[in-house]
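Request from the bench team (R.T.):
"We need a structural guess for the complex before ordering more zinc ion. Sequence and SMILES attached. Just send the tokens back."

Command: build protein-zinc ion structure.
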Amino acid sequence: ALMPDSLNHLPVHPLWQSPLTIPGGTRQSPINIQWRDSVYDPFLKPLKISYDPTTCLHIWNNGYSFLVEFDDSTDRSIIDGGPLENQYRLKQFHFHWGAMNDWGSEHTVDCKFYPAELHLVHWNAVLYPTFEEAVMEGNGLAVIGVFLKLGACHEGLQTLVDALPAVKHKDTVIEFDVFDPSCLIPSCPDYWTYAGSLTTPPLTESVTWIIKKQPIEVDENQLEAFRMLLFTSDGEEEKRMVDNFRPLQPLMNRTVRSSFQ
Ligand SMILES: O=C(O)Cc1ccc(OCc2ccccc2)cc1
Ligand SMILES: [Zn+2]
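Reply to R.T.: structure attached below.
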């Protein structure tokens, strides 16, 4: 469903009040993926994912989303193959979601929103010494996007959901020391890929996006658990953490490739 105009009159979180367009930006994210306009690329390899669950560190409410962060000081949790020329190290994953089930994802497929979208953020530690430097380079980051749709309860996600009340407020953190995020990635190998950007400041054009075709299923209670988080710190007037997605950006001179026919 398309976002109703009524949403546009709601207060917008400061994050998305900032100039939503980057002057001179030619590869901004998110975008609508028009399935019929995507081009099958037979040279795209299967994506290789190997995460070490013991690299998981903590969950942190940063006031925009909740991040599950990983120890990225070695190559223990990495992805390789797919459209990538190097292996990339897992740094964190987080979600974007809506106040209602009719919207919430950042990317859309044929103009359809999903209720939420998972982003697994990786950086090119082969070419760059730190994540912060990789964020500034065209081939610095690789983000796997996974759509969430309403359906059965997701067992693997539940362990994460159970920890969320401990990070209700902005700038709270809880230790979270064994989690394998590959349980959140669909078994179907099909994906779209395109050159894009961060969808939160600094909005730099440094992301190779890898968007999985198949969504994962989560249930209403799990989505509601996301929506009880707060943008605000303890003691401030409460603002529910919902609709933390950036508006769609122009495709401009880009082609979305598919790994499948
Ligand atoms: O997943 C996304 O939405 C893309 C995305 C990827 C990385 C990212 O990092 C933010 C960040 C940038 C520089 C320093 C610290 C944090 C922010 C957003
Ligand atoms: Zn994101």
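Two things stood out. The two ends are 26 Å apart (CA to CA). The chain has a mean pLDDT of 95.
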